[in-house]
Design brief:
InterPro entries: Fosfomycin_Res_Enzymes, Glyas_Bleomycin-R_OHBP_Dase, Glyas_Fos-R_dOase_dom, VOC_core, YwkD-like_dom. It is a single chain. This protein has two helices and eight strands, in the order βαββββαβββ. It has helices spanning 15-25, 84-93; strands at residues 8-12, 29-36, 41-48, 51-58, 77-81, 102-103, 110-115, 121-126. A hairpin with a 2-residue loop joins strand 3 and strand 4 (51-58).
Length: 127
Amino acid sequence: MLKHIHHVAVICSDYERSKLFYTEVLGLEIIREVYRLERKSYKLDLALEGQYIIELFSFPDPPPRASGPEARGLRHLAFAVDNIDQSVAALNTHAVVTEPIRVDPYTGKRFTFFTDPDGLPLELYEL
């Protein structure tokens, strides 16, 4: 029945700040950007290496949501990287704070966490 994950939707508190983070800091490509006047909302479709992965939404005064890694619900969004040291260094040049790199005890792979401008937990996972 299911084939693959199509996309993840993210609601942000500051559209321009989040747009800059996801496009300039993380390097996602803009597929489409629309302003929906009736909802006073932007919808930004983003891709990674040509694959549509994130819908970034803005809404007037969205309520906060618990987003800690151990909160109920979606735990985090993970991105695969070839070299975690280079990826962490690139994030750090944009003043993005990353946790210390850890090793997955089951796979032996290295990973780290950081957050988007609204505190959404994001992960880098080395291939």
